[in-house]
Every structure is written in structure tokens, then in C-alpha cells.
Amino acid sequence: LIVNKAEQVIIINDISKTYDEGPIILWNSSYTKLGDGTVTVEYKLATEDDDKYTTTVPKNVGSYVVRVSVAETETHLSGFTTKEFTIAKAQAVIDITNIETIYSYNGNEQVVNTGATLNHSETTLTYSDNKFTNAGTYTIKISAIETANYCFLPSNKFNNEANPLDNGTAWASG
């Protein structure tokens, strides 16, 4: 009587995600296998040749392939399988809640160039149409360019209404 070792069957679940500054995490629950063979997990860019697999876990935006290999045991043959996955760009977010919105008319040019924050540090914010002298309604534009890991963010515009009050203070609402 001859009992042959069982074929290895490996199934990898989709591990695609949106960029979050952290690496892909391939939990034991992210794949299934037969037997108790030692598991090796390797990655490469989807466009690279198979000799480029590495154990370095990707964290930046791109299309990748994960390869899960299982070593042979007394009961199961070795085997491997691959699965493509993507790390998609995250959305950049501009928070304008901390922009100064109260100005006192003094005849001098006022400039709004601080107060907004960006949810990442891959680029800086650009302010435009951000200078005014007289009371009135102004639209200030704040934007961030697209980066390797964050989507382009069109200008975040907010109206800055400056109205002279009885005491000479100009009020702006964003």
C-alpha cells in the first residue's frame, strides 16, 4: 500500500487597501493552506519579473503581487500561489477650521497664509487669492498637489466675508 502526500492548496484573500502610511498586513486569516508546512510570504511590484520577490512588505501606492509558499511536510507537498493586490492613493484633506477669520480694518493689506492643515506631510499647502485690504467678500483658495501616495486635491475655496462693524472691526466667516 502506498499513500502519497496530498497536494498543497493555498487560497489568498484580497488584501488591497487604501494608503494609510503603514505596510500591507497579511494575517494568517488572509490565506488558507493545507497542513502545517512553514509559510513564506514574499512581494514584488506587479510589473517586475518573478526573480524580484522579496520579503520586504510594501506600504506605498502601487500594484503588487503577493506569493505565499508552503514547505513540504510528511503529509503534504510544497506549493505556492500568488495574488495581485493594490495599494490605492488616499484622499488628501485640507482642514480650514483654524484659519483666522476676524480682522480689524487698518488700511493695510491682510494676508491669509496660515491656519489650514493637510492630513499628510508629502507636500505643503498653497494659498492664493489670499490678500485683501478693504471690507468685502473674498474667496481664498487653498490647494495641495498630488503626491505619490495622495490624490490631487483641487482648491479648497471658502468665502471670507469681511464686513465693517460699528466699532470698525471687520468680520470674516469661513
Explain how this protein is built.
This protein starts with 10 loop residues before the first strand and ends with a strand. The chain is built from no helices and 15 strands. The chain is mainly beta and 174 residues long. The strands form five sheets. Strands 8-15-14-13-11 form a five-stranded antiparallel β-sheet, with no helix packed on it. The chain is rod-shaped and about 100 Å long.
Descriptive labels:
174 residues; mainly beta; five-stranded antiparallel beta sheet; 15 strands; disordered C terminus
Sheet/helix structural class: mainly beta
Summarize the main sheet.
Answer: 5 strands, antiparallel
Largest beta sheet: strand ordering: 8-15-14-13-11
Euclidean distance between termini CA atoms = 82 Å
What percentage of residues falls in helices of 4 or more residues? Answer: under 10%
* Unreliable runs: 160-174
* Computed Rg: 28 Å
The overall pLDDT average reads: 85
Shape: rod-shaped
Estimate the strand proportion: 35-45%
Spell out the helices and strands N to C.
EEEEEEEEEEEEEEE
